[in-house]
């Protein structure tokens, strides 16, 4: 079926998405990468859905935190900012982040815009002069609540970051935030999705209900900031300056048309630590200045490293570029978005990351692509043309794709990206099952069945093409590789969800020999930092003097291909599974200590190597009649799965 490439001709729908602008006191880390990858994936998704998208990111360069950090490094604040901006832009390139505009708050058009808005609010009476007395946390660039007690040294500690705060007493300008309490509450009530996920909305509403104090929005003791118009002794508070980047970054003060087209923002993506600034101050500033309000502030959770908060002092801050060196962009993008729903905290461990890459990417998807393309190349020299008629099995596969596609799109729309990826993997496994049921490797032995063989491989190719479309928002590099290996001459990005057809893959395209999609990296090589710190593991006496066995002795071990049928957790244990495995003619039960490394769905349907003539043993009261082989990588089991389809029960030598 011919597939149209042009986007729909009706008025393009618009979508404006932002990330926070990042402080330039330090180099980018995994938390910054996370928000930006979400924004990029949603941007790519919306483009496939026919939207015109504007994706804004950038850097927050003023304020005491940057002033202090630059002084410590012997640089001017702008020199520091220039350096760090280079690091951010480089990382975004490596992660395939396709932003439309990178805003820096030190750019003149932004500074001018902020002064104009400040002036506007002052003239309106929402900004007035007074004296601020209180405590200020430089690390969070935030004023502390009054009720925080002083410690025995007379100091206060910031409840958000745990750093000591500074006492401040200075003339300043205030924003009349207190006047917006009721307006904000009405707005939240009328727009229950303004803050997502809903738990965060409840947090905001109960905070605002307690009443709001006017907000100090200038400083006389900070020099590194935008001067207050007509009163340059004062510089504008860094959060007042920073939040308005969402206006200046879309043309406010320099491109009226652009601004009119895209404002208000559809989604401000932020971390949960900066929710109040975005959900309370920001709409209040916009109400005061008379701008329409954004549609949604979506707050994501935090990434921990090995269950601990990352911090420079602990030395456990994850630098994404180390992962990118080994894996390229897609595995990291996939892991961060697949592992947790956006609102919850996530935990990054090297083991967890590697597990996902090996299991979901290399085993499930990588092998499927490899097998399918290898068969098309081997059986048809890379060119499928005499394709037989469809059967109901083929139609079922197409129906499964259509169902997956509509669910995936709905999940992406809802920012439930982890669920979208789960759905895609359900379909990947359906395609694997389709091949297992149709057994093209057997049909290949019967010349009279060539049209049927071509049909099976054509269906599988169509499915891969569909998978490429669906993973593209999150894994653009792999999606494009699959697309190109399928011989597609047009760009994947010229497609559109609505016009995409499962059978839009032209017959007769020349398929390239498969190239590996995902690298297989060993855990030891991956944990570079750790590796350097650890002494080499001691050898056991047995290893020192390796005992040799004869070929005949080796042949006594009956190794077989086993197909995993079912996997259940052994109650009351963390590590054990009870597994039923088919050896072709018979089914065996085994108890295996791999529950920490593999989920049941990672195992079911997979083919592994088992020892068929092992004496049964009873483990936790359950009879174990065989054992599977796995590599021992620092105490972690890594199972070798078969890439090619092999019958259960086949002998392994
Ligand atoms: N400059 C302000 C934002 C101004 S937006 C008008 C700022 N910058 S930041 O560089 O400190 O943080 C930027 C974002 O990174 C925040 O959304 C924050 O939640 C996020 N993260 C920082 N560390 C993080 C993790 N460990 N995990 C996930 N995101 C975290 O705040």
Task: Explain briefly what this protein structure is.
The chain has 653 residues and is α/β, with parallel strands linked by helices.
Description:
The two termini are 47 Å apart. Helix 11 crosses helix 12 (329-339) and helix 12 (329-339) crosses helix 15 (417-438). Strands 3-2-1-12-13-7 form a 6-stranded parallel beta sheet, with helices on both faces. The chain has 653 residues and is α/β, with parallel strands linked by helices. Residues 20-23, 31-32, 34-35, 60, 242-243, 245, 270-271, 273-274, 302-303, 310 line the site of 5'-O-[(L-methionyl)-sulphamoyl]adenosine.
* Order of strands in the sheet with most strands: 3-2-1-12-13-7
- The helix tally amounts to 23
CATH class call of the largest domain: Alpha Beta
Report the helical percentage: 40-55%
Structural class: alpha/beta
Set out the fold topology.
Blueprint: E1 13-23, H1 30-48, E2 51-60, H2 64-72, H3 77-94, E3 101-104, H4 108-124, E4 127-137, E5 142-143, E6 166-175, H5 181-190, E7 195-196, H6 198-209, E8 215-216, E9 218-219, E10 227-228, E11 231-236, H7 238-243, H8 245-248, H9 256-262, E12 267-271, H10 275-289, E13 297-300, E14 303-305, H11 320-327, H12 329-339, E15 346-348, H13 350-380, H14 392-413, H15 417-438, H16 440-443, H17 450-471, H18 476-485, H19 523-526, H20 528-533, H21 541-544, H22 551-555, E16 559-569, E17 577-582, E18 587-592, H23 600-603, E19 607-611, E20 617-619, E21 622-624, E22 627-628, E23 631-633, E24 636-638, E25 651-652
Parallel strand pairs: 1-2, 1-12, 2-3, 7-13, 12-13, 14-15
Antiparallel strand pairs: 4-5, 4-6, 6-8, 9-11, 10-11, 16-17, 16-19, 16-25, 17-18, 19-22, 20-21, 23-24
This protein binds 5'-O-[(L-methionyl)-sulphamoyl]adenosine (MSP).
